[in-house]
Design brief:
Length: about 325
């Protein structure tokens, strides 16, 4: 899959980047991962037994979404803070946000996406409960402010409602820059006005917790040990921000409905309140805007772009109905 913003590097250049960061290293194997949508990712095995993954950010001059400024810095921060909070993540050997470079351990397991169709309902629900419990540890990392971690301070605010309003405004502006506004169930200015009207509900969140915000099945690695599946680690923290920890559950909008309850049980240890369900619906709206904004910068083919757009239009219709918009 070719994606417009993903850098293209050969093996020699990737090896030079690793040697610049880690010193003299001999390499025994190389593999390029081609299933990502943003960063380049390469695997390198070393003569001293390490199995590494190297991530390289897109060139800074490319047109990206507004929230994607300094995304590598956000991911490095996510890794460092999450590991300190006890979240299972690959070991980070080197992180350089200025160069847009990360070097980490390669995991031994497989993605949940690659095996979920082979799992029984009980196995899958057990993993969902474990994902909920482990992802709840992200909230133990507290930020200095709400919003995205950016050197510019863009979207940073002292309240969650103000940060979320800025984040939603950026996402809406990205959608407006692309060709996908005609299918929206409401005009963009009406959508952002509705989200801004949820200030009191959003400000029930009074501590800026780290939120990974991209724990879809392709970013969850699992391993089978002693006859059972368990979570090995989470990857790809580039969408991370500081806000409502409940937003971690937003990615379940892509999963069957019966998988929400075990995840919530693992995450909260109880059912969601009506207010929490409403906040989660707001975050689904925000994620749909982010995905629609991607369609103007990722270089998808017409069929793929139309598929994603139609899916998100339908998601927005469902959430607006649930919210009473």
């Amino acid at each position: 899959m070719e994606v417009a913003v993903r850098p293209r590097l050969d093996r020699a250049r990737v090896e030079r980047l690793v040697r610049d960061a880690l010193g003299p290293v001999e390499f025994t194997a190389h593999e390029e991962f081609t299933d990502g949508y943003f960063n380049a990712a390469h695997a390198l095995d070393t003569a001293d037994g390490r199995r590494l993954v190297v991530k390289i950010a897109p060139d800074k001059g490319l047109k990206l979404q507004r929230y994607e400024a300094d995304l590598m810095g956000a991911e490095i921060d996510c890794f460092e803070r999450a590991i300190a909070a006890g979240v299972p993540m690959p070991r980070l050997w080197h992180g350089d946000p200025d160069r847009g470079l990360m070097i980490m351990d390669r995991l031994s397991g497989v993605t949940l996406l690659s095996v979920r169709e082979t799992l029984s309902r009980e196995e899958l629900h057990g993993l969902r409960r474990e994902i909920g419990a482990l992802s709840a540890r992200f909230r133990d990392a507290t930020g200095e402010h709400f919003g995205y971690r950016r050197p510019s301070g863009r979207t940073a605010a002292d309240t969650w409602s103000a940060a979320f309003a800025a984040m939603a405004a950026d996402a809406a502006a990205d959608v407006a820059d692309g060709p996908w506004t005609p299918g929206l169930p409401l005009p963009l200015d009406a959508i952002t006005a509705k989200l801004n009207g949820e200030k009191d509900l959003l400000d029930e969140v009074d501590r800026p917790s780290l939120v990974h915000f991209d724990l879809w099945d392709g970013n969850v690695f699992v391993v089978r040990e002693d006859g059972r599946w368990r979570v090995e680690a989470f990857i790809d923290g580039e969408r991370a921000f500081y806000g409502d920890p409940l937003a971690e559950l937003v990615i379940l909008k892509f999963s069957p409905g019966d998988e929400l309850a075990p995840t919530v049980d693992g995450f909260l240890g109880r059912a969601m309140t009506a207010g929490e369900e409403r906040r989660l619906s707001l975050y689904r709206v925000y994620l749909s805007l982010l995905i629609l904004g991607e369609l103007g910068v990722r270089g998808y083919g017409p069929e793929d772009a139309a598929f994603f757009a139609d899916r998100e239009y339908r998601c927005l219709e469902r959430e607006f109905a649930a919210l009473g918009y």
